[in-house]
Amino acid sequence: MINSPSLTLSSSSNDTCFEINALLNKSESDISISTLDKNSEQHRFYVHSLGWTSIDEEDLTNEKTSQSVNRCIYELTNGINDSISRWGDGKDLYMDINNTDILLIDPIEMTIIHKQSIPSLRVWGVGRENSRDFAYVAKDKSRSTIAYKCHVFRCDNTSARIIANTLRDVCKNLMIQRGLLNHTTESSNDGMLIQKRPTSFPVSIESDITNSQFPTPMEEQKNNLPCKYLGCTLVEKPGGMNILRPAIEKIYMTIPEDKWVPVIVKISPTSIVVCSDDDFKEQLIDCRIRYLSFLGVGHDIR
After folding, report:
1. Is the pLDDT at 200 greater than 50, yes or no?
2. Mean pLDDT of 62-86
3. Which of 134, 135, 102 is CA-nearest to residue 120?
4. For residue 80, what pLDDT is reported?
């Protein structure tokens, strides 16, 4: 929900929407994380369960995943459904991540409440409204038909992105150890290796891990549009074509054409980002869709 702060989604390996960047090194100094065993690479996080809810498989496509998982996070974090069950009755838990599983452990009894194999995860992500909200989607083992549940957790004293990055790195290491990494790459025309996203999602480590590929991160669908950036100006109200068009005309008439800046406008379901045409890392504008009050087209449709 690796294919999002915006919902940062991952599926089982490298970088993702989805906006998961190298935060794992931060975990070494974070008080809410501990590496229990250097040999097993087991990591411990302090969380409490906000519950789980069903999610349809058709809502887990590239186009819908971010919105669907974030909806589940919103419903569970705001207590919209009071009848939702919670691991450990919502009390503090240890979330241990090792090389194969996610374990939810009662910190008092030190008993395993729930065990989820990492290859069975369909997607995971970080909440848009609160960076401490973490969610993952996995197949519901209690049902004979194909059904999925979205499990949501609130992290204590740390960002949920660190959990997301830990899962990403665990999956990447598993792929390398088991020789699956080569199966998920292909060569482009210029000789560069490009990640392919497998469509199969193994459920059982014992039976499938040696024969199946781990799903690679999903990224939000983006449209990249080459444009010219003219600038900005203050307006009296946050919306209305009677406000927008005079502002467009004002900038168009006052900014000489040789001052127009070539840019790439990246449009995704969650944001509009304007980057320099020369350097994509140089962001001129980054506007979240939920903060956008109004948009429109001038008299000249260009």
Report:
1. no
2. 77
3. 102
4. 63
Q: Quick check: helix, strand or coil at residue 233?
A: coil
Listed in sequence order, the residues at least 6 apart from 238 whose beta carbon sits closer than 8 Å to its beta carbon are: 293, 294
End-to-end CA distance of the chain: 35
Cβ atoms of 138 and 114 closer than 8 Å: no
What is the rounded radius of gyration, in angstroms, for the C-alpha atoms of the chain? 22
Q: Both tokens of residue 55? A: 């999610």
Q: Where do we find the tokens 């406000």?
A: 243
Pairing of strands 112-117, 223-229: unpaired
What residues contact 93, with CB distance under 8 A and at least 6 apart?
Answer: 46, 47, 48, 49, 87, 104, 105, 106, 107, 113
Q: Say which residues have a Cβ less than 8 Å from residue 235's Cβ, sequence separation at least 6.
A: 243, 244, 247
Instruction: Look at the block and give the residue holding tokens 């203050």.
Output: 234
In this model, does residue 21 exceed pLDDT 70?
no
- Distance of alpha carbon 275 from its chain centroid, rounded? 21
> How many other CB atoms are found less than 10 A from the CB of residue 12?
27
- Virtual CA dihedral for 159, 163, 165, 171, nearest 10 degrees? -170
Is the preceding peptide bond at 134 cis, omega within 30 degrees of 0?
A: no
CATH topology of domain 223-291: PH-domain like (2.30.29)
Residues of the chain with CATH 2.30.29.30: 8-174, 223-291
User: Over 90: is that where the pLDDT of 171 sits?
Assistant: no
Strand partners, 51: 152
CATH class (in words) of the domain with range 8-174: mainly beta
> Distance of CA 58 to CAs 51, 55, 63, 121, 146, Å?
21, 9, 10, 16, 11
Lowest mean pLDDT among 28-42, 60-74, 123-137, 269-283: 28-42
Task: Indicate left, alpha or beta for 285 from its phi (over 0: left) and psi (-120 to 50: alpha).
Answer: beta
